[in-house]
Structure prediction request, 149 residues.
Amino acid sequence: MERFLQRLKDEGYSENTIKTYRRVIGYFQKFLEFYGFSEENFDQDKLQSFLSTRYRTERSFRTAVSAIQRFLKFQDVRVDLKIEFPLSGEFKEFREIREETINSIENEVNALRSDELKLSLFLIIHLGLAPSEISLLKVSSYGSFLGVP
Prediction:
């Protein structure tokens, strides 16, 4: 592993990246030892399960898989990792908001002067839309020309 990390350092990788790779490769070696696998022959489904207990977000999971793939390539092991990444990477925890809190927020929103801002905040509160999503909504107006709608 040290030769691999030295090569990364020689290629100009940052200290943070090298520390991350060291940690990931350490986990990978523990995985191999625990299950009695070798670098050339291991169960990818078990590896996915093993990594998912340590890496919660899609980004960190992808980094770990990339580090392992790069390490295996350095060791001249040709394995194509076919690992599915977690889909729930953006949501770490869901907390319920009590009815009193919602009512308090609604009262503050109702005190605003701008109808557009009120509508936007209600869309955020009740539908869970992001401000960027609200800005994409289009408002159509209907009119008539010579009595034809």
Summary: The helical segments are 2-10, 15-35, 44-52, 58-74, 99-110, 115-127, 131-136.
